[in-house]
Amino acid sequence: MAHTHLFSRGAVAGRFLERNRPGGAWSLLILLSATAAAVDSPLRVVFGRDAFAHFFLFDLLITLLFTADIAFHFWIARKSHIPYGRLLLLADIVAALPLQLAFGWTPFALVRIFKLARVAQAMSTWRQHHIHLWNTLRLVYFVYWLALSVHWLSAGWLALRGIPPGADEWGAYLRSLYWCISTLTTIGYGDITPHTNAQVIYAMVVMIFGVGMYGYVIANISTIITNLQPARTRYLANMEKLGAFMRSRDIPQAMQRKIRDYYGYVWEQRLGYDEASIVQGLPPGLLVEVSLFLKRDIIAKVPFFTGANDDLVKEIALAMQPVVYTPGDVVVRAGDPGTDMYFISRGSMEVIAPDGQSVVATLRDGEFFGEMALLRNQPRSADVRAASYCDVYRLDKRSFDSVMAKFPDFAAHVRSIGSKRMDRSR
Strands 368-369, 359-363: parallel, antiparallel or unpaired by DSSP? Predict the structure, then answer.
């Protein structure tokens, strides 16, 4: 529970950073610094500080960066009113201590590894912010932690075996890395073997870790790769079910093609997701924000909505329902009672002359029709037919009248516009 609470605080702080740059760039810099320190520390223990020409400058830079990061997160805590997590604060302070610089004992370099707690917290935050990339990030995180683990295990093996005097240090590390990878992957050629009791115990621990890692890879990597495109996987599964259903019910081939074409359009434009079901699942406040974002440009083009207050526009946006029409669909027919107004989000529609053949006008993205049905109870004056696949928002008269009842001033304004239009049409 403490672990979850720690990362949930980090996620909230991450959302604060999303609104207050340059937090993202700073987090990336700290992640790279923590990774560099985690790679450097075990090698410094094995090789000794004298093996690194720029040891002092590197350690001083890491100390300054980690100290600045503590101050940075205190600033975030003050601005966002989110307490600095105790465990993260402790890990940050320990990692920032220049113990090796102060005391000269190389094992003190390992305290830098505590900064990886901040890396884990950042990864958790990114995964929550980019949920659509969850499987990709999961794979990247697995490779990251596996690479660090292999590096640490290789350094541990090298420390147990020792480096012969005068031997190539990096060559010895490379052979240690070779032993670690061959052991973890259960290959184990046997050309490098343990000799002391400590080496035997260490080798057994690495083998157990390798078996666990191997099982994890077999059980999860195939699933991760399969789910890198979850929308496509779901779409293909739905199309397979749809095909089986149509064959079992002997649906005509022409109709089957139309159905497949429709689902193909929905996949290309929306990745197979239904806008209405997704938006309706949002909490009320967020539902209003998303509805306004999706429909604000269309509403702004309607003359009798010009100058309407924000509350009214919110009501209208919530009442508009998304509909998809396929090519050739007749949206309204001449003479039918008018009960809906339509706003074209994507696609084109044709207004058909009374002869049923000639095209009087073509309506495109951002245009609307059927407004007189909302203003006055009168029949449709012409057929309107979809010329292509059309994403449309529909506003029914019942919802419109409900909004009019809530805003009497607006209702009077709309009625005056309707009267003027009727006078011009006579």
Answer: unpaired
Whether 124 and 30 share a structural domain: yes
The more confident residue out of 165 and 391 is 391
CA angle 82, 84, 87 (to 5 degrees): 135
Q: Tell me the C-alpha distance between 374 and 319, whole Å.
A: 13
Average pLDDT over the chain reads: 80
**CB distance 30 to 65 below 8 Å:** yes
CATH number at residue 402: 2.60.120.10
Domain hosting 252: range is: 230-273
Rounded Cα–Cα distance for residues 141 and 46 (Å):
27
CA–CA gap between residue 369 and residue 311 (Å, rounded): 23
CA distances to 6, 59, 118, 122, 283 from 11, rounded to whole Å, are 9, 30, 12, 8, 19
Do 97 and 109 touch, CB atoms closer than 8 A? no
* Confidence (pTM): 0.53
CA dihedral 4, 7, 9, 11 (to 10 degrees): -130
Q: How many domains does the chain have?
A: 4
Burial of 24 (0-12, 13-18, 19+ CB in 10 A): middle
By residue count, the chain amounts to: 426
DSSP H helices in 85-192: 86-96, 99-103, 116-129, 134-161, 169-184
**Domain contains 278:** no
Nearest to 299 by CA among 349, 309, 361, 385: 309
Give the residue carrying structure tokens 């009497």. 408
**278-303: average pLDDT:** 77
Token pair in block for residue 141: 């995180």
Give 141-199 pLDDT, tens digit per residue: 888 999 999 999 999 999 998 887 777 888 899 999 999 998 888 787 778 888 899 99
